[in-house]
Amino acid sequence: MSTREHGPLSRREIVGAGGASLAAAAAGPAFAQGEAPSTQATRLVDPQDKYPRPPFKRQSQPWPGLASRMDPRPDHGEKTYRGSGRLAGRKALVTGGDSGMGRAAAIAFAREGADVAINHLPEEEPDAREVIEVVRQEGRIGLSLPGDLRDEAFCKRLVDDALRGAAQEERRRSGKGVSLVLDDESSTATDELVEARLGAGQFGEGGVGADAHDQDIP
Predict the structure, then answer these.
(1) Residues facing residue 143 across a β-bridge
(2) Alpha-carbon 37 to chain mean position
(3) 108 within 8 A of 81, measured Cβ to Cβ
């Protein structure tokens, strides 16, 4: 035997032996359960196999078309997007929010904590209702603002309608009472009137009579 085998251990050898013992102790429970460390991690799914892939069957719709009638239905994040509150306290107006990228943005904004108003064509109302339902399921204000952006007069009042609609809904939720513009006269609204005008989250030609400046709207 060499003199090293009988001589005192060096500090490096002592530290090395201690580190190996700690590593073995940490790995012990996993191996004791008969599982390799790699099998404990969540199994990854290949994104190429996670969603429907072409070729898809031929299909057509009259303009402007509805996402709800597509087969397979597009994924806008309804079941997959998870928010983290990065837009809490904010308000968003999304044009084309009934389908496509606009719908995905509206859903993402709501799940990040924002109240959301979407603009869409009147013919796209069925898709818009689905988006508003998703927004409200997140506990956020969801408003539908149907209209054609090619109409200059509509564009000029769209933002004001969105702000007023959000303020109106906030007042309704807080129980402070609301007022609607009815035949150019301001009248305190009954529950029936509020539900008729706001229940579907829709604001069209008449607008909403609550003053948006009464609310702190970022």
Answers:
(1) 117
(2) 35
(3) yes
Q: What is the pLDDT along the chain (218 residues), one digit of tens a residue?
A: 544 555 566 666 655 555 555 555 555 554 445 555 554 457 888 888 877 888 888 888 888 888 877 777 887 888 888 889 999 999 999 999 999 999 999 999 999 999 999 999 999 999 999 999 999 999 999 999 999 999 999 999 999 999 999 998 888 888 755 444 444 444 444 445 545 544 444 433 333 333 333 334 34
Residue 139 DSSP SS3: coil
Q: Do strands 185-188 and 179-182 pair parallel, antiparallel, or not at all (unpaired)?
A: antiparallel
- What span, in angstroms and rounded, lies between the C-alpha atoms of 149 and 155? 6
* pTM, entire model: 0.58
Strand 91-95 versus strand 115-120 pairing type: parallel
What is the spatial distance between Cα 104 and Cα 135, in angstroms, rounded to a whole number?
Answer: 11
Q: What residue type is 103 in one-letter code?
A: R
| Integer Cα distance of 139 and 124 in angstroms | 23
Domain coverage including residue 165: 68-214
Structure-token match 């928010």, residue found:
83
Please check whether residue 158 lies inside any domain of the structure: yes
Within-domain flag for 62: no
Q: For the domain that residue 95 is a member of, what is the CATH number?
A: 3.40.50.720
Q: How far apart are CA 146 and CA 154, in angstroms?
A: 10
What element of type H or E holds 13? helix 11-32
Preceding peptide of 64 cis, ω within 30°? yes
**Looking at residue 184, what DSSP letter applies?**
T
